[in-house]
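I wish you would study the pair of lines that follows with an eye to the fold:

===
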Amino acid sequence: MLSLGPATKVYLLAGATDMRLGFEGLVALASGLLLEDPLTGHLFVFCNKHRTRLKVLFWDGSGLWVCAKRLEKGGFHWPQPVAQGASRKVLLTQAELTLLLAGIDLVATRQRAWHRVE
């Protein structure tokens, strides 16, 4: 079971990823391109070129999980690399990951400053 604590970070690899990659390939991307240790318990999220499939790599303390999602219609609003040679690492909050998985475009949304009116 995936359990995300408040200290769990979500790392996303901008741009396309080959979805044929398994455990070893995704671990290599997490450590090589994202420059993060995949055995930390953080989430690593990857998406294909057509933005219809994604994979999440997660270490639960005893082994690696690879979770996959395939959309039947539409596509994920996936960030593209900013510039050639720039870092492809994007750090998301858990709330932003939830919105991304629900199909909401993070760039087009704004976070409102909520306050209680008394």
Observations:
- The mean pLDDT is 87.
- The chain has one domain: 10-101.
- The beta strands are 10-13, 43-47, 53-59, 64-70, 89-92.
- The longest strand covers residues 53-59.
